[in-house]
Batch of 4 targets.
Target 1
Amino acid sequence: MGLKEYKPTSPGRRDTVADDYKDITTNKPEKSLLAPLSKKGGRNNRGRITVRHRGGGHKRRYRIVDFKRDKAGTATVMSIEYDPNRSARIALVLFEDGIKRYIVAPNGVTVGDTVASGDDVPVTTGNSRPLGTLPTGTLIHNVEVTPGKGGQMVKSAGAVAQVMAHESGYTLIRLPSGEMRRLLSNCLATVGQVSNLDHKNEKLGKAGRNRHRGRRPSVRGSAMNPDAHPHGGGEGRSGIGMPGPKTPWGQPALGKRTRRNKKTNKFILRRRYDR
């Protein structure tokens, strides 16, 4: 993929840096792998807003992506497609028995390439293998945390993890955040880096691009009245008036560590903030 800059024909175009989509090979998704996706507007099953700043946006259909990569046999890449529900590209693959599936497209995989899953498949980009069978230093993505559940980590555009070591049934990997974590060696992972590397360099350019994505405006707490937010009030452009920032409900925000899963602490050898 590449990026496209625009001439400043309007204030919104002046700073826009957009995707050129030249790596996309078709604009028609596979109908058998589509599912309806209703809009929630950030609301739960009781109709209450539980996630703010969500709503509107372009209509989408969900692409059923195979994160498990558990089907044996060789598949041929039929197309590289845009997915409105994620930052990475997806690849449509066709197995020898005629079954089609979507997978997260690895960087460098093109139409006509073959991908496979299994313990003894080659260690090449796009192939899926158990962590314990991968050589030290291998770059991976779409990593399972629980064997058989499907990839849960390292799936966004440009993301990549690395196999660091193998020890007594566990594999040590380095995550994109810098965290060093042990996972069971029979967890599957896909070789290579996730596609769409330039996603992080895009600039929306105008507020309307955010609305197209279903993101509504976010108002600063310091611009509110004191009855609406802990940061509100004061004369003119005042500070927040407290030692650290808070949420609208008075809880510590912006940097407060909220991890509570003590059962898996023993698998994390280095935290992402200890780099």
Target 2
Amino acid sequence: MGQIEGVFNGSFDLVENIKISPLSRAYTFSDSIYEVVPFYNSKAIAFDMHIERLLRSSNELSIALDIEQASNQITQLISNCPSENGYVYYQVTRGQDTIRAHMYKPLMDVETFGYVLPFSFETKTLKVMICEDIRWGRCDIKSTSLLGNVMQMNSAQKHDCDEVIMHKENILTEAGASNLFFVKNGTVCTPALSKNILPGITRALLINEIKKINIPLIEGIFDLKDLSNASSAWLSSSTKGLAPISEIINLDNTLDIQDPIYLKCKDAFDYKFFS
């Protein structure tokens, strides 16, 4: 992949030169949050929305983030990228312990770390697997506490799948690293936001574009039966864009990746953000 430009606590360097203590609470407790900020033609997509979500996550965990410094560092990483298209990964950690302890000390020195990568925003068709949602109870916070996602995503990989669609007692939540949309009876459906669902930026942008083109849309509570009756389905994220699902290996249904409603949604989204 070559040399990767990064930043740690405001100092820019190659990622390979950055050293982080093993007593960082990101390492011992996943006591950290993150954002992925995409950019196209050297311009960040929905920058303010990403920054607002980063600030919300830090507030939810009482991490004293200097949001102006974080914004400036993300902007600088985008400027440092040799490619016009890519994304920034930016992580904020509560700080470093003197010895591992569940109860953290007040007024810790917050650690920030980020890097930038070139990325081509190409649409990939996905093969996915249904699985139980075993994640922690505050998935609305963009935390690095992602072991539940990791376990289910790697289980799916063993079945030659690209992603998972998760549910809690048959109620759909989201994918392993994306939000879920599907079309049922001519209406676009997506699970309503809750503590089990990350408020995805791409999700919000897409919903806004769908409303502009007057396609019926419902944010609600949906179960596996609703998904089994879908004519098409796709996942949304900052790096996936709108990725159509061709097959759900353990659900009895047939999905059309050329469904006209999906294509209209994708065309509207791509025209707004990738043209």
Target 3
Amino acid sequence: MKNKAAQSKAWATVQIARHPDRPQYLDYVGEIFTEFDALHGDRLFGDDGAMIGGLARFDGQPVMVVGQHRGRSTREKLQHNFGMSNPEGYRKAQRLMAMAERFNLPVFTFIDTMGAYPGVGAEERGQAEAIATSLAQMSSLKVPIIATVLGEGGSGGALGIGVADRVVMLSHSIYSVISPEGCASILWKTAEKAEQASEALSLTADKLQKIGIVEYVVDEGEGAHLHPEEVMQNLKSVLKQALAELTPLDAKERCEARYQRLMKFGSDNLGLTA
């Protein structure tokens, strides 16, 4: 009975993370940052509608902002490819982060994607290479990086902008190597066991904080879609705290701490079933 209740709670979190009225990346940008100026294109192939980034101010301080936007209407969803980035999206993010490093600007990334786009064209243009290059770049970037999971954090598509000094999750967001439906299809040959899979994946913010994958969890009550402005202000406070922790460190210290943060994952047998 206890196991069933735990499964229901995890599955409920998945449903809230996917709620159609949930605030999206550009909603947060408009509330938390000022003077946002989007920059386009990867200078290799084209622009990507799912990955949006540019210069902005955070409490008056110039910063670089990069994130995945899904869209709400059918037209917006098609324009932003449902938040699933092509290789040019990750290469655009790389270009913007290199610019941030050149001008010593902190980087804020916002994750909300089912995963990287798996289409034939994306694979032909080097989807895996683009994500791998992003991981390598972010691992050694000399400026502070703070990543926030807003809704769904799906697989390598999320991790492609998720390597950071500090990772924040909203309390009803999820972060996982695979969707519950995908996991269930592999383990039990049916997506109908997605609820059971959601518990097995330990994809909720509280569990990920417990095992050290994320540093901060922002409480959103019953869901950010119910009181978005309050949640956005709470998130802004956490981002300010995280930036204040990172700013005093010099680049070498920050990169070493980021490396140690990454290397500790899986080093302790903490378990995932509690």
Target 4
Amino acid sequence: MKTILIATDFSPVARNAVNYGIDLAKSIGHSVTIVHVYQVPVAFADGPMVLVSLDDLRSSAEKQLDQLKSDLHHVHGNAFKVYTEAILGNVVEELQHVADKLDPFAIVMGATGLTGAQRVLFGSTTLFAIRKLTYPVIAVPEGKTFGHGIKKIGLACDFREVVDTTPTRFIQQFQKAFKAELHVLNVDFQDREFRSDTPEQSMLLHTLLEGTNPVYHFIEEAEISTAINRFAEENNLDLLITIPKKHRLLEAIFRRSSTKKILKEARVPVVGLH
């Protein structure tokens, strides 16, 4: 049985992401593994000084995970498999280590979160995770529920080097798992991004996506994040797939300032695929 890996810092946004991840897992028959990565709070005066003992940090993390697991079993029943783990370290590095062991279907995180000595800065951490982790990362906006499920998936694409940059296997995996429509979005303004090989690249993408029956949408808009958010809302997308490390179009979205904006304003979960 595959698992959905969920990262939490116990903030309300992260708790909402837990609920989303569980509903997602139940819809495709997967288990859930919830991970809390904690770090040692340090104060600086004449030198670095640890504020809380490692034992206390570990104990607090494990107690919160135990309570969360108990709450989830109360709602979903003991038959639903929920595993938990508290880990000391860097959030993204530890998530990669856990994912390498579990080979999850996806990693689910809140799009933003709390800050503080014992909490992770989840907004920037989620962005870093989307860009660095080698597994699909689903960033769930505040208040977003799984609802009716995933019926419509959007894929943002710039039609550049599609053979080398399109994670075909993951896209097909998501589309097949949810039996969802696939909508390919291309944003341009006055043909600024159009190149001589764009028609050929679009045909190559269509070949790569064979079997998914994609529908193509060409959007005339100067502001990429605005265009994507508007399309997602107006067309009731349930998931937006991005390729942040490789596509120039998505690099524009995933610059720190733009990413913070899209993760804050997006009304649908954003998935980073590599």
